[in-house]
Fold this protein.
Amino acid sequence: MLKNEKLFESVRPVGEDTVAVIMWTEPVVLPPRCRVNEAIERIRQVGLPDANMNHCYVVGEDYTLLGQVALRDLLLTRGGILVESVMSHPFVTLQPEDDQELAAQLMEEYDLLELPVVNGENRLVGVVTADDAMAVLQEEATEDMERMAAMMPSEKPYLESKAARLFLDRIPWLLLLMLSATLTGGIISHFEDALAAQVALTAFIPMLMDTGGNCGSQSSVTVIRGLSLGQVRFADWLRVLWKELRVSGLCALALAAVNFLRLLVMSSVGTAVAATVSLTLAVTVILADLVGGLLPILAKRLGFDPAVMASPLITTVVDALSLLVYFQMASWLLGI
């Protein structure tokens, strides 16, 4: 009978977010030629390292992973049968250096409760359970939410965090976004003469920028979720582009039509100004959806966290684009 010795001694974590950090390193191991009643007696002797484990792992003398057997199958099988006759071959395994999110994705994709972890020589070094994966998903979701709100991820719960720590988490992005917002201010200053000629145009700038930012945020959140769950990959960028073109086209048509009628009925601006604002709104919505959908995919491809491309940064980009489109439309339709 194999000794249930510590399997992790030769493995070193290669990063804080790797599988090696969260895996259990002392799963119950069985030799292939032991009988079911012997396996059950061994489980009674050594116990399970975690209550969420429901498999034992069949290994060779050098701990090469040969298969796995569920506790339920052991209990329902006659005691004299060899374990190798009951075991199944795991079709998905992890390696210690894999990202923790990969473990959660594989468990969700294949509906598994635990995954064996093997080294490059296919030797068993640990096990990751569904409970571990859920903790990873909760932590990653929290980090993504904080990044999407332009904050550095925090390690402690909100009420346990000091004010100075929260300040340091928030101020870098706030400074960056404040400086990047000078771009929109520069665009407005450049077209100051145009605004002086058509003062009414100034009143619609906040509406255009806010609507564009909201549209970009909606598409980015949808795509980032798909990336985090493994449903969207870089190779799918053309499909994402086509889908966002259709969605944004419908949104642009609806918003522009409602806005055009609203301006004609509820404001004193002329048809030309109403058309300028509404056409700008339509183009802004389409551009914002495309930026929000494609930038996270590009970020993922370049090795960056897609969450950092979310609402605040995308909003800044969309604000600049909306102003450029606005003043270009005004020069075409109003001759300013």
